[in-house]
Amino acid sequence: MQNTTLLLTFINNLSSAIQLEQILSIEPHPDFTMRGWVGECALVGKAKNKIYDIDVRWATQETIFYQNLWDFGWNEQMLLANRHQELHKLIIYLCAPGMKMIKWGVHAVPNHFLIGRNWISLTHCYIQDPHPFTLPNLDQLNLDHNNTGYATTANLTDRVPTIQREFAGVSLSLSHVPQGGLRTKGLFKDANPTRPLLSIVTVVYNGEKYLEQTIQSVINQSYENLEYIIIDGGSTDRTLEIIAKYNDYINYWISEPDTGIYNAMNKGTKLATGSHILHLNADDLLFEPQGLEFLNIAHFEDNHMRSILKVNLQNGRMTREPIEMTKNSLAEHVTYQDHFLQISHTAMVHPGFINKINATSIFSEEYQIFSDTIMLIEKFNTESVRLSSVPLSIFRSGGASSNNWLILIEMWREIRKQPAIWPKISRWLQLQGVFAVWK
């Protein structure tokens, strides 16, 4: 157990902005780790009316510097608590000798990257010596020394994938547009034949505010059988600068004007080499680093729908959707066929839906925000979908997809064009949340 007086002095010397009065508790760090670090201890400190959650970690690799906007140590219970007290987070990285210091000192994370209302500030501190901790024997920490990269850089090959998909109405003009990523260097993901290769696609236009956090949530996944594709619509802000920063960790990206969000998402689908796809837009992010591990035992023919955590940008309040699933649909790895899914909001579809790529994976480009629902109805009526209440993604609400009037207008247009879809849409209108309903 560390001397609390020494710890108090050490923490207060880090920054004049952080001056603790006392350390309330000290515990071993939770048994959780990501690439590049292992936990030392977890503290709770008090400073006047402020409470600090303090994580002390041993940093062993430079990969920690590409986690700073996403690896906050949250969990679902914390995010849904929606507390209002003065609660702050401090993460201290004790960087190993010889480690290249990309950053040093104290860095406050911009508030717009904070999710929910659990913490009202988050600060990172990167230091080497001096500190009051004894360097552990890293060889005894069971570190995977071969696991030094990111999910997107693992299992690369120079063999060009043989998967070539042609989808009606989806065209690409890649010869004269800005593009980059590992594919342009002749490096492709080597699909593991026993697990789905998941293609994660992010579409973005002038998305500098949140894009970097989205990227970090993807490349730091523990499930390495994934590729990451970014489709930019010709941004004029710092979006391309952010993409360039992560060029060596993105499998492929292009930048060219598009005709709308579904046109961009369809481009990503055509460019995907995986068997499955997840559309994660530039203001969404994956919930946790182990969130895709269930794909290790997934069947190649299955689609997967999981819960999402929704954050209201106006007040920071977090909710979980679906709120519940009826009967035994909470069970994972249970197939529901011929069951109708009701969905309360089109925006809830793609951040929580991993779908098997086929002709039904293409979105109608006729609508602005209703095509998600059309695609989901088709998938649930013709294919196997496995449901789980475990959160997959975090969705920021308040954009164009929150326009309920536009949803109703586009829904009515689809009903007039396809009257047989009305019974399915009428159920969609009945409830808030996602429910599996069967006869």
Task: List descriptors.
439 residues, 6-stranded mixed beta sheet, 8 helices, 21 strands, disordered C terminus
In short:
The protein has helices spanning 4-14, 76-81, 211-219, 239-245, 261-271, 371-382, 404-417, 422-430, and strands spanning 22-28, 37-47, 50-59, 87-95, 105-108, 121-127, 156-157, 179-180, 188-189, 198-204, 226-232, 252-255, 276-279, 284-286, 303-312, 318-321, 335-336, 340-342, 353-356, 385-397, 435-437.
Notes on the structure:
This protein is an alpha/beta fold. The protein folds into three domains: 4-140, no CATH class; 150-272, no CATH class; 299-439, no CATH class. The chain contains eight helices and 21 strands. Strands 8, 10, 11, 12, 13, 14, 15, 16, 17, 19 and 20 form an eleven-stranded mixed β-sheet that branches.
Task: Describe how the helices and strands are arranged.
Blueprint: H1 4-14, E1 22-28, E2 37-47, E3 50-59, H2 76-81, E4 87-95, E5 105-108, E6 121-127, E7 156-157, E8 179-180, E9 188-189, E10 198-204, H3 211-219, E11 226-232, H4 239-245, E12 252-255, H5 261-271, E13 276-279, E14 284-286, E15 303-312, E16 318-321, E17 335-336, E18 340-342, E19 353-356, H6 371-382, E20 385-397, H7 404-417, H8 422-430, E21 435-437
Parallel strand pairs: 3-4, 4-6, 10-11, 10-13, 11-12, 15-20
Antiparallel strand pairs: 1-2, 2-3, 5-6, 7-9, 8-12, 13-19, 14-20, 15-16, 15-19, 17-20, 18-21
